[in-house]
Amino acid sequence: MRTKAQLLRNAFIAGAVLLAVGNPAQAQTVAAAAPEAMPARPLAPLCDAPWFRSGSRVRMEGDGAMPMSITMTLRRATKNQSGCQAQLEVRSKSALSALMGPPVIMDQVHMVNIDGRSNSAKSSIESEHAVINAQGRYARMYGEAAFRGQGVFSYAGLDIREGSTLEGESFESSVSLQIYPLGADEIVGSMRALYASISVGSRHVGKRQMIDTVLGRKECLPITYEKRTSLGPLMVGEEVVQVEPTVMHVTDWYCPAEAFVLRTEIRQQDKVQRVDVTAMDLDTTSP
After folding, report:
1. For the CA atoms of 10, 11, 13, 18, what is the dihedral angle to 10 degrees?
2. Comparing C-alpha atoms, which of 248, 219, 245, 241 is closest to residue 230?
3. Is position 20 within any domain?
4. Range of the domain at 104
5. Are 134 and 5 within 8 A, CB to CB?
6. Dihedral sign from CA coordinates of 174, 156, 32, 249
7. Residue 14 DSSP SS3
8. What is the mean predicted confidence (pLDDT) over 216-237?
9. Structural domain tally of the chain?
10. Is the pLDDT at 212 greater than 90, yes or no?
11. Average of pLDDT values for 225-240?
C-alpha cells in the first residue's frame, strides 16, 4: 500500500513532466487572425505573423497516452523597434493515461518578449517570472517559470520548401513551485527544475498534401524532426530525482496560407499521439 506521501511525490513528478512537455514555447502560439498593416521598420518575422494581435486565441486537443486540451490567448500585444511583446495566457488540462487519474489543470501567464535583432530568421524569445498555478488529484502547485530560446515559437520567416532541411533549435526553461495539499494553505513541499531543456534536431520538409483541418481542407507541409526533452536534476523537497529524458519523433503539419501548424503528430516508444487545432478565433473582449 502506497502512503499519501508517496502518492503526492509521484503526483509532483508527473506534474513536472507534464509542465515540461506541455510548455507553450513548444507549440505554435495562438490563433491566426486578420493581419495588421505591416510596420515600416523591420521586425522579428514572428511579430509580423498575421495572428500576432491582442485577442488571438487557439484551442488544441490531443489524444493518446497524454490526452490534453490547451487554450492559448494573446493579450496586450505591442511592437517596438527591436521586436514585440505580449502577455500569453495558457489554460491546459493534461494527464498521463497510465496513472488512471483526473487531469492536471494548469494556468500559466507569461509576458513574452521577442527580439528580432539577430541577423538570422530565428528570433530570440524569452519569458521570465511567469506565474504557474496547477492542480492535480492530490495537490495544487503555485510558483514561477521561465524559458528562453530561438525560433521555438513559429516557422515564421523561414524558407520552407518541399525537400529542404531546416536547422535544429535549442530551448532552456526552469520552474520553481510550492506544493499544497488540496483544501489547505500549508506548504507541504517544493519542486524545482532549474535546468530543463529541449533540443530539436534538423527538420525535414516533406511533400505538400491536403489534410482536413478546423478551417477545412488545407494544403500543408509535413515537417519531421526528433525532439529531446530533459528535466535535468529535479529537486522534490531536498531529494534529487533523476527523470529519464524523453525522446519524441514529431511531424508538424505547417499550412503556409495560415502561417500556422494545424496538426502535430508525436511518436514515442511505438505510440502515436495526434494534436489538432480545434478552434481559432478572436477574443474581442481582450485588451
Report:
1. 140
2. 245
3. yes
4. 4-282
5. no
6. negative
7. helix
8. 91
9. 1
10. yes
11. 89
Cα(100)–Cα(95) distance, integer angstroms = 8
Residue 108: CB atoms within 10 A of its CB come to: 21
Residue 198 counted as domain residue: yes
Claim: this prediction has a pTM higher than 0.85: no
Residue 243 lies in a domain: yes
CB-based contact 246:226 (threshold 8 Å) = no
Residues paired with 281 in a beta bridge: 57
Give the dihedral sign, CA 162/168/173/179.
positive
Helix, coil or strand: residue 38:
coil
Q: What is the 3-state secondary structure (H, E, C) of 121-176?
A: CCCEEEEEEEEEEEECCCEEEEEEEEEEEECCCCCCCCCCCCCCEECCEEEEEEEE
The arithmetic mean of pLDDT across residues 22-27, rounded, is: 42
Residue 2: the pLDDT is 45
- pLDDT tens for residues 99-144? 456 778 889 999 988 886 655 556 678 888 899 998 887 788 899 9
